[in-house]
Structures
1.
Amino acid sequence: MDYATLIQLLDSTVRLATPLLLACLAGLFSERAGIFDIGLEGKMLAAAFFSAAVASLSGSVWIGLLAGIGASVALSALHGIASITFRGNQLISGVAINFLAAGMTVLIAQDWFKQGGRTPSLMGGARFEGITLPFADAIADVPIIGPLYSELISGHSILVYMALAAVPLTWWVLYRTRFGLRLRAVGENPAAVDTAGVSVIGLRFAAVGICGVLCGIAGAYLSTALQAGFVKDMSAGRGFIALAALIFAKWRPWYALWATLLFGLFGALETRPDVIEAVIGMKVQGQLLGALPYVMTVIILAGFVGKAIPPRAGGEPYVKER
Amino acid sequence: MDVMPKWAEVVLVPLISLLLAAVISALVILAIGEDPVAAVKLMITGALGSTYGWGYTLYYATNFIFTGLAVAIAFHARLFNIGGEGQAMLGGLGVAIACLFIPWPHWSLALIGAAVMAGLLGAAWAAVPAWLQAKRGSHIVITTIMFNFIAAALLNYVLVNLLRPKGQMDPATARFPEATNLPTLHDILAPFGIAFSKAAPANVSFVVAIAACFVLWLLIWRTRLGYEIRAYGHSESAAKYAGISPVKITMITMIISGALAGMMAINNVMGEAERLVLNSTEGAGFIGIAVALMGRSHPVGVFLAAILFGFLYQGGAELALWTSIPRELIIVIQALVILFTGALDNMVRMPLEKIFLAVRRARAPKPERKPVESAE
């Protein structure tokens, strides 16, 4: 494998890791506050559709992004009402949200565009284009550093850089602010937070809301940056891979970056069987590579390689003592 | 605890939840510019108006009975098995192996053999997450989700590389031999002089599914194991004090659950397709969740809910054929049923409990009556 191939591979790793990273951080906020969210997939899918649909109708990708975030936050609100207000089962609510998004996106797409459950292809201002960072063209010819900078680091859409910036931001919010401390506390011991006079319900709704915003960006990235338009079921299990990455990352922001980059690399390798063959000298089935994130997550969950301990109050509705 | 009489618990709450789901579905149909009344009429004639429609309704219902029972038994032990889809896929593999590599003399023997193989593989696929939950403390919901994806990848691999006949393009096994083909309801009912559509895929597996409902009812409410499962589901600590082993109950419940989900394959793989194709389960494993929730984890409820979903599936297919309503409407309805009967259960229950409390107080100022025995 030569240097150019490596850069190409890493480039697609970054592009494939971005939606996983955003969804993973979304799940991190929610689960750190004690709300399990297996509806990441559905929220991404809904956001992917609404951002593509509104971008195509309005011609502006930014309005599309807002619509996507809106759709995702609406589903988050539903999850919050079901699991926080009515103390329902968070897992079942997540399952319902996934199906709701899977069905409604096709239904609405068919009603609006009549193209068999897809949106028209996005063009021009209705899509996030790659950004050329300063000097990228100037140093492109410098050996080693040139391609690294101009092809790997530069040239992604703005959402990729936003996702990368979200990692330190998440770390800062969770570990360096009062809100973050309370948010983590509410996922470990909500009764203690309640005793301190802080609203458990308010904090959990805030966490679920942030989760919605991040999932919305992840979904918008899928349909307006990674691809040009929405197709049925385009999230294709990414929400679940993000969930796997979250466990892999042991619910920590920086680990989430590495975990999603690793899973992104698997995704990139899946499309380049020639590279795998050249590196390890044997053929690996693409399907088996696709299953690797799931297998690794099960192994991590089993505690054979370091233990992943979830937030203690996760999944439990909080009932105020009287 | 029992604020509501049993009939309200068993009939009223699910009915109101269902009604809410139906009203919102109707609004969705209105919003996409179609007539909900006409749609329901079309669904009824399409799914129940002919023996052909019934044949499809019952075929789908058979799938959903198996996966619904699988989720239901796990619910009794307070385990959430989202892995029905993967377990059913593995069951399909079991059926394919049994049918392709063993020369069965008669379909009845083949059915038993295939059901055993399907159950075994489905159970094995559920046993690993169960063991991880019981022994290593990893959350069963997450592991069963992961196992769904691993199952899909595994089946893809097996069908493309191992079981696909030479020279065939699509990833599927060869056709199963003639002797393993199950009799359809047409064949079963013909000797009794009942004319049933020949083209519909409903087959003898439907009878097996009904038998499974009965056996599961016996198991849950008439055996020591069933008692232990329910006790464990109600309170893990109480069960432990009573000498019930959490590891044992988790393992056994999930093995039964996985075996039931796997046995679905005798219907869709052996009875209908007569070969194993990619994505043969078509999401039936997930519909099992909706069915179990709506049926309140009771075999009779599961049976009725499965028939309802069978009707929705067949009716939805007819809608997609004759109107501009896409098939995905069923997924929306399924989501709403899961939402209202599962996640938003308290939204329906809380106001109802208040009403019953108010009525009871108004009627009887005497001290509390003896609470009604709860059987859930």
2.
Amino acid sequence: MGDTPHRSADAGTGGTRVTQSHEWPAGASARVAEAPVSTRSPGGTGLGGGGALPRSRRFGAERAFRGLTLAAGTAVLVIIAAIAIFLVVKAVPALHANTENFWSYEGWSPNETEPKFGIGALAFGTVLSSALALLMAVPVALGIALYLSHYAPRRLGTALGFLIDLLAAVPSVVFGLWGRDVFSSPVRDFSVWLNQHFGWIPLFGGDGPFGASVMLGALVLAIMVLPIITSLSREVFLQTPTANEEAALALGATRWEMLRTAVLPYGRPGIIAAMMLGLGRALGETIALALTLGITFGISFNLIQNGGNTIAANIANAFGEANETGRGALIASGLVLFAITLIVNITARAIIYRRREFTESAA
Amino acid sequence: MAKRVSASNVTAYYGGFKAIENINLTVEPKTVTALIGPSGCGKSTFLRSINRMHEVLPGARVEGSLTIDDQDIYDRDVDVTAVRRTIGMVFQRPNPFPTMSIFENVVAGLKLNGVRKKSILEDAAEKALRAANLWGEVKDRLGKPGAGLSGGQQQRLCIARTIAVEPQVVLMDEPCSALDPISTLAIEDLMFQLKDKFTIIIVTHNMQQAARVSDRTAFFSIEKTGDPGRLIEYDNTQKIFSNPSVKKTEDYITGRFG
């Protein structure tokens, strides 16, 4: 593109003198015409103008930046691989020392002379409490996000959005203490009520005591993941093209039908991503659950009796008193958590990938 | 099917800004009416107030009366969604729903009206796509995303989506401004066919287009920036383009006025 003007400028300086025009640029007109070219080769001597094109630089900002990004990308892989190797190396000796089945044994006493520990109950508790938390948090979060993005007056929406983001900045130990000392008593009362009226459902059965239960842990978790899911989905909902919202309205959609037709489908990949981030936080949450759960080692669907445990909470509770094998056992449990998180992420990717034809053309 | 649209003393605001003032005009059924005029003169605002899309924007409101066959669409008891179903709209830029297939796009309006039966939806989709001159091009790929079509096809898809709900009036807000001449021609041909069934009102910046497609033309203008747009002249298209009665109209259509 940039070549065309200065060639014609050379032609303008006179047919036979074309080659000379570089050594002593004769006409002012030629110089003016060449001026834009000089910005491309700031060296000063090579003003272009029919001479050889400047050589591409072998080392420069372009290359350096590419190297930096490559290094950053590689670092992620190296760190993940390092974590995986560390977990495996530390876990294997403890797994060998285990005298019970690691997958099915319901209990955790790796510090004995005959170490016995099993991941089943912990993994089950982790998935149960996280899934329950997500089940409670997602509808509320989507409701808040839709309200903030499409119903609330703009100022109120911004202010409330800010408040919700603040909720994400509260340290999890604060949530844990609040859950244990304050929130547990209403949850206990509610659990007793559930037990009296719906005790015939196994989820709400049992003879008590109630309170420090999976329900409490999941409720606290739900509050903790709420801001992540809310603010991400709100961002996505705000990005819905106005043209699509107007198209739905012009077809005679009510506000809610417009949200269902244009906004929610458009935001679907974003909602899934937000849910997965929330689930990731819930699965890995440590201290809040260590403080609120009843800490038992059994697989039970009962949500309201004292009990429940998760991998991360167990690590927090047991790490202090663990010996060599104990630490290895905890690290093995960490490896399982790592695998669960990985499976969750892969599933989420797969869901998004399945509809790529539609989401890509939307972008 | 087609209905008469009449506006009397329609004034529209964006917050404190008065965009159009005292528009009086009647559009006969089964005709094409073109709204022309310089940018910012309120053509689109007027068009959007005909199906109550104007009030979607925060702070926007309309005064005066707008009727379709003697029913006031701004009446307190009128359901706004019913108004928009009766008066369909095609937008400036093609806006198919990106997450939906071609088929889902066409029947989106019907689904909003509670039609669920597959056979009815399929018949309606074919009918609308045929009416929009798009059936032949997409009949083998109805399940593909609507956003994957070319710009002209997308706009015809949007027209199909609009007419699938069988409105009485179709509003078009510069429907060809984002399209190439061939697609534009396809849409203009389509307008000729559609006026057998619908009342069509189109906003256009292209005066040849107004002259080609419309039966009646309304010329809007403003005194200066910040003033509300007014209807300057409204007459048969032939008269407007050959022998306008207002000097300002003549200046505009002959290009002496920007």
